Amino acid sequence: MEPGEQEPVSPSELNAWRRGFTPQAEIWNGRLAMLGLSVGLSVLLIARLANH
User: How far is the C-alpha of 23 from the C-alpha of 41, rounded, in Å?
Assistant: First the structure.
């Protein structure tokens, strides 16, 4: 394997619930952040529509 080349990772390994500074934890952090952002924006949109 050449320097800088990464070996492929199986999808089941990427979806594993791992703690610490691991690629799996970063994937879950991103997923939960996008979920929170979506829920927050949806609540704001519904609140604005309910006031009119």
Answer: 27
pLDDT value, residue 5? 78
* Three-state DSSP string of 1-52: CCCCCCCCCCHHHHCCCCCCCCHHHHHHHHHHHHHHHHHHHHHHHHHHHHHC
- Indicate whether 2 pLDDT > 80: no
C-alpha 5, offset from chain centre: 24
Structure tokens at 13: 């390994």
**How far apart are the C-alpha atoms of 27 and 15, rounded to whole Å?**
8
